[in-house]
Amino acid sequence: MIYLTRRERFSAAHRMFKKEWSDNKNQEVFGNCSNPHWHGHNYTLFVTVKGNIGSETGYLVNLKTLSSIIRENVVRKIDHKNMNLEVDFMDGKVTSTENLAISIWEVLYPKVKMLGIELHKIKIEETENNFIEYFGK
Ligand code: NI
């Protein structure tokens, strides 16, 4: 079993909040990330796939194909967008990095499967000091 990771980057705005809570309660729970006037992050996304290498190609997957799938289904939809307002796969969700990782997993899992390999991990760095990893459960 071989593991391969592709890195992609995007920038997006968000606000951590629940609409059923007051501004004060949102501020109390989410702190600065609940600023009503939004803020943004430069995210780094790592998509790790796994499988067996092709006996003829010697590679796991065509990297250009994998990159196109990530860009088309994730980066194009979220880069320079407001996650709370414009990104279909974050609709109705608190825009935490945790939820973002789970949502990206759900978007990419079937696409990666179609390449004859499997999604192994979604890792997202929100800042240099914080990252989230999701393995599908
Ligand atoms: Ni934030």
Could you characterize the architecture of this molecule?
It is a single chain. The chain is an alpha+beta fold. It contains 3 helices and 5 strands; from the N terminus they run E-H-E-H-E-H-E-E. Strands 3-1-2-4-5 form a 5-stranded mixed sheet. Helix 2 runs antiparallel to helix 3 (97-113). The longest helix is centred in the last third of the chain and has 17 residues, at 97-113. The protein is elongated, with a radius of gyration of 16 Å. The chain starts with a strand and ends with a strand. The structure holds nickel (II) ion. Nickel (II) ion binds next to strand 2.
Element layout with pairings:
Blueprint: E1 2-14, H1 23-30, E2 39-51, H2 63-78, E3 81-82, H3 97-113, E4 118-125, E5 131-134
Parallel strand pairs: 1-3
Antiparallel strand pairs: 1-2, 2-4, 4-5
Helix pairs in contact: 2-3
The structure holds nickel (II) ion.
Average pLDDT, to the nearest integer? Answer: 95
Instruction: Give the CA-CA distance, first to last residue.
Output: 20 Å
What's the alpha carbon Rg, rounded to whole Å?
16 Å
What fraction strand? 25-35%
Question: How many helices?
Answer: 3
- Class by alpha and beta content: alpha+beta
Q: Strand tally, please?
A: 5
The largest sheet has its strands arranged as: 3-1-2-4-5
